[in-house]
Amino acid sequence: MSLVEELTAQMRLPVIGAPLFILSNPDLVIAQCRAGVIGSFPALNARPADQLPVWLEKITETLAADRAADPEAKIAPFAVNQIVHGSNDRLDQDLKVCADYKVPIMITSLRPPHPAIEVAREYGGKVFHDIISVRHAEKAIEAGVDGLIVVCAGAGGHAGTLSPFALVSEIRRFWDGPLILSGAITRGDHILAAQAMGADFAYMGSRFIASDEANAAPAYKQMVTTSSAKDVVYSNLFTGVHGNYLRGSIENAGMDPDALPESGKDSMTFGSDRDEKKKAWKDIWGAGQGVGNIDAIMPAGQIVDQLDREYRAARKKLVG
Fold first, then answer.
1. Which are the contacts of 168, defined by CB distance < 8 A and separation ≥ 6?
2. Rounded to whole angstroms, how far apart are CA atoms 188 and 311?
3. Model-level pTM?
4. Across 152-242, where does the E strand assignment appear?
């Protein structure tokens, strides 16, 4: 059985909930997995560092109990995002904790994921790596990743600039492993379109910001439901890496979204240094260009229910 088949056998929909900085937490991950999609969170969201095993204990025990209570239920595995970057002073410790709990999937970002791959191989975990170009994909494959997360134009947070039609097609010329597509995917018919394009899974982050479980300020959730693609600004000012942010939050912070300065790569900080970044930009809110399709705040399980209805309707329309 291929890895894609192994994962989809446990899932209701071919969806991975993207790890949301600050916003993703155990309650959101558990709700996503219970609903039949892979939930995830950044390891750095568990603060201080000794909270990571507490979070993993809650997630693993809860999902194990759910599976034992209903062995036929589609309860998806979960993933933890690791920032592979020199300034992430927690990386080695967080990788060890993930190994202790045998985290099913690690999602790696920013640098070649060799450290995560070495750890995951020891206990049988899988590593999916974020990429925004063919060159990044080739490097990740050389490193030995199990899956590629193709972050295309319009994705929330750190995003690339390439069209999914271009990037997915080029990568599929040399990669037949798991491919996860990210970029303004907010509806069930978008999930089907991602599959038709050659992806195995859709990667959805912004869609779950406006969930009851997400650790987002009420005003943030509300802004997501009232914004559209024109309200998304692409900038590298806030983290040193280009990403998409809500225009209204930038304006509320006293800045002009149309005149933001560029930031050098040396401004990227993670681990303990990221705490200061978080304080500085805590009211700058990320979101993808698909926010115009998000109209209400609801539990994550209901979001998945809606996506499932839309997905099935789209499949039925195509089949006739």
1. 150, 152, 179, 181, 197, 198, 199
2. 4
3. 0.93
4. 157-158, 179-182, 201-204, 232-235
